[in-house]
Amino acid sequence: MRTFVAVEVSSNEIAKLQKEILSTTxxxxxxxxxxxxxxxxxxxxxxxxxxxxxxxxIKEMLAAFQFEPFTITYTGIGAFPNxxxxxxxxxxxxxxxxxxxxxxxxxxVARMSELGFKADKPFSAHLTLLRSKGRPxxxxxxxxxxxxxTFGSDWIDKVHLKKSELTPSGPVYSNVYxxxxxx
Length: 183
Description:
By secondary structure, this protein is an alpha+beta fold. It has a single domain, classed as Cyclic Phosphodiesterase, Chain: A (Alpha-Beta Complex), CATH 3.90.1140.10. Helix content is 28%, strand content 39%. The protein has helices spanning 12-24, 52-63, 95-114, 140-145, and strands spanning 2-8, 32-34, 41-49, 70-80, 88-93, 126-132, 150-156, 158-167, 170-180. The strands form two sheets. Strands 2-6-5-4-7 form a five-stranded antiparallel β-sheet. The protein is globular, with a radius of gyration of 17 Å.
């Protein structure tokens, strides 16, 4: 199965922000696809195609992982690879929340590396809002419009091993295993 480790989020404010960006910035629905709000998450590490044996090993490694719950605040809009030629438009996280997310991600990635998995890129505390459908779009106006603003917060208290099924209408994610923060 195709898998990744992620932190899910549930902020209604982010869904509102996404709708506002689509309705006020002139982005053409033919050019961008919004991420479904029920699919909002921070990818910690993409594991790729794994076997049932790997699932058991990953569950065992994650079961031993402990972390404290924490709050993140959403702030700032950015884009990959850049604002002028954006393929991904994202919302960022406050510096304290980003530091805690990065620490959590680095610990999970270290545990997964013990099992032979490698992160394809360093963790970046961003939540994808929109993806370009073909050619890149400009996100400069969006970034400047929302500079310095915050968009709600989320309580981070779970890490998930997730399965990803690619379908013509978009990805379908399901939780394979969940660990909860110590309270």
